[in-house]
Protein: Phage gp6-like head-tail connector protein
Amino acid sequence: MMAESLLPGEAPVSLNEARGWLRLGATVDDAVIAGLVRAATNICEAFIGQWLIVRSGEEEAPFPADRILLVARPVVAVDGVTLLSADGTESPLGAEAYRVTIARDSSACVAVPNPGDAARARIAYRAGMAEGANGIPEAIRQGIVRMTQHLHDARDGAGAGPPAAIAALWQPWRRLTLGSGR
Structure:
């Protein structure tokens, strides 16, 4: 339902940064390290409850619903709403046919006052803290590097949990919710 993994390309921590932290030179393990950086970034986003680098997402929600609360945060913009009927017919809505509210905490909800006989709504939007890696706070980036190291060290089955320092670095940006709001 929702885009949840990083798009190929820019990540909050570069391969060179991760390789330097791990004290690795140019190596054939670059694909492994890049995968660990993506995994560490996904862990960070799940922990703090926010997407880091702005990217597109899409969600579907059933009717009847007074409002549809988008899962990803911080929402930058809602790009479109499409109604989906039970038989699969899609009807894109004009901007005047739905209402978007982005709260101070950057959560967003979409209201479709007249969904007709639509069974579901598909909402396309963009969310993320920053346009690029340089806009991500250094404490978050440092936590991702340290999580990458932890994942690298644990690749052979070492059972130790992640260091508490990682959670301490990410804690100031953590956003918790009390439910889905749907």
Remarks:
- Residues 56-127 form one domain.
